[in-house]
Amino acid sequence: xxxVTYGAAVSLDGFITDADxxxxxxxxxxxxxxxxxxxxxxxxxxxxxxxTWEFAVRQGGGGGRGGPSGMTTYIxxxxxxxxxxxxxxxxxxxxxxxxxxxxxxxxxxxxxxxxELAAALIAGGTVDEIGLNVHPLLLGGGxxxxxAVGGRTPLKLIEARSIASDCVLLRYEVAASA
Amino acid sequence: xxxVTYGAAVSLDGFITDADxxxxxxxxxxxxxxxxxxxxxxxxxxxxxxxTWEFAVRQGGGGGRGGPSGMTTYIxxxxxxxxxxxxxxxxxxxxxxxxxxxxxxxxxxxxxxxxELAAALIAGGTVDEIGLNVHPLLLGGGxxxxxAVGGRTPLKLIEARSIASDCVLLRYEVAASA
Lengths: 178, 178
Known about the structure:
The structure is a homodimer of 178-residue chains.
Chain A: E1 4-11, E2 15-17, H1 30-40, E3 43-49, H2 50-58, E4 72-76, E5 88-90, H3 94-103, E6 108-111, H4 115-123, E7 129-135, E8 137-138, E9 143-144, E10 153-162, E11 168-174
Parallel strand pairs in A: 1-6, 1-7, 3-4, 3-6, 4-5
Antiparallel strand pairs in A: 2-9, 7-11, 10-11
């Protein structure tokens, strides 16, 4: 079954962008370059919510940034009516869609930041791994990596180590994914 | 100058209790016992907000739990009119009070969980160190260790290591405390 990983760079207080969507606090080091490259190996699909997609476009990236060619980008939205160029639009139930996607043939899947979709997919038991690059600051507000959705999710620690620039890499297996 | 440390056990999504105030998810291991004992060495004062005090009382602890005798407990509240038994009541501005307390003679100071007071003191530049024992689960809601108060606080990583039971110890120096 295809593995779904939710990964993000995050402040110690759990935000993936600040209140103004600024990302200037991100520390882009050789460590991060290597970890990012490793995490994309074997991946051929990306999942993101509409807001993350629009954020990526505003940042000048678009959905395919960072990924190799041959990547399929799925945008989850109930309000968009047409798929953006280079992406597929998913208007149906996210958990059901991802559950089916994991059963279909293909490589691994990365779930991009934007807490709402991630929260729904974690709660739905479809996320297998969570990776955080914890940055050494408090942002004091912004988009949370894990919105408060109620309900516990047990995790199993895979890896915890400090990397360059006072960042800490944390990787967890989601105990009850399927 | 006396050092102020804000420490807490926290879920990966940043909560120090769940929405029902449950703490049954805490993993109390020999590692934690040793780390806790070490962190109390040289400490002779505790700071906490009214809600944390009341929570501690409901948990059957009271303010002095965990600390050695000779500990002074300061409860910060603008609504309490009388100091609870065994504690001092601080009704004045928290940042100014703690700034003066740090200049006074005495040992180190521990700031107990309950994000509101901590957030004010961190924003006010009076917290020197932050320690987290990150537990391997998402709680999905509850009392956040770091409420979103706006404004960035730069940190410097002191220590990051995995301890027993899939927990991760993170310690940071607050870059601009005074």
